[in-house]
Specification:
It contains 10 helices and 2 strands, in the order αααααββααααα. It is mainly α. It has one domain: Fic-like fold (Orthogonal Bundle), CATH 1.10.3290.10.
Length: 267
């Protein structure tokens, strides 16, 4: 398997500009509004992210779990992993090293790590019609992926590219989706973007179908950008745009509630 070349990525700059405008608007609210105190900056952001975290955890659990018992266990592990991610971000640690993949695997899918401690999968894996690379190729491909990511300057494109390619590699025996989505959101949240998550069952089906079509197209024409890969990138941008709007509304509500409280106190 060959990784998708960075230079083949077609960026929808219009959507990225919209997302950046929203994110900047959030921080203008926090920094310049009279309805926020200086020490509200971190609290306001974390409050908003915690709400999105809850949704992210639930959606991830629903996507992976086969029954309610599994969903409860997945949700618990995802919350632990997201707590870890926020601690790392506060320490100014971005997601950029292979070792961090295994840190996430231990938190998100401890049962998988117990099978192959600190190792990539030792079996052949197939996702729909896509046959994932042989186990012998996995370490090299993952290393190449981290190396190629260094060439991508835009954090949004970097996160989506990593998501697409790591799922295509499928480096672990299980838990690949959960680990990949948390890693992607670590990169986004580090650069102050909200996380991306799938909102409902139709989006879940669309997500899986689009990835499958993208992988099939790349299997047939390696190294070439195609309509299905482009669709996956577009859908991820759309989800991020929705969540940026949600984050803006949450932060704005904090200011409006404080303004109303201050008004009532004056009266």
């Amino acid at each position: 398997m060959d990784l998708l070349p960075i230079e083949e990525i077609k960026i929808n700059q219009v959507k990225i500009n919209k997302i950046d405008h929203l994110v900047k608007s959030i921080y203008r609210l926090i920094m310049y509004s009279r309805n926020h105190l200086d020490d509200d900056l971190l609290d306001a952001y974390l409050t908003s992210i915690q709400e999105l975290q809850e949704l992210l955890s639930i959606k991830n659990a629903q996507m992976e779990a086969q029954n309610e018992e599994e969903a409860v266990e997945y949700l618990k592990n995802l919350k632990i992993s997201l707590g870890f991610v926020i601690e790392e971000i506060i320490l100014h640690h971005n997601f950029e090293k292979e070792i961090q993949l295994f840190q996430l695997l231990r938190l998100v899918s401890p049962e998988t790590n117990a099978l192959h401690p600190n190792r990539y999968r030792q079996t052949l894996v197939q996702i729909g019609a896509h046959i994932c690379p042989d186990k012998e190729e996995v370490p090299k491909l993952v290393s190449q992926l981290f190396y190629q990511m260094q060439s991508i300057t835009n954090p949004i494109i970097k996160a989506i590219y990593f998501h697409h390619e790591l799922i295509r590699i499928h480096p672990f025996a299980d838990g690949n989706g959960r680990v990949t989505r948390v890693a992607k959101n670590w990169m986004l949240m580090y650069d102050l973007y909200p996380p991306i998550f799938v909102n409902d069952a139709p989006q879940k089906t669309e997500y899986i179908t689009t990835l499958s079509k993208s992988f099939r197209a790349l299997d047939q024409s390696p190294n070439k950008w195609n309509e299905h890969t482009e669709t996956f990138f577009e859908l991820e941008l759309d989800r991020l745009l929705v969540n940026a709007n949600l984050l803006y509304e949450t932060v704005n509500r904090i200011g409006l509630e404080r303004a109303e409280k201050n008004k009532n106190n004056v009266e």
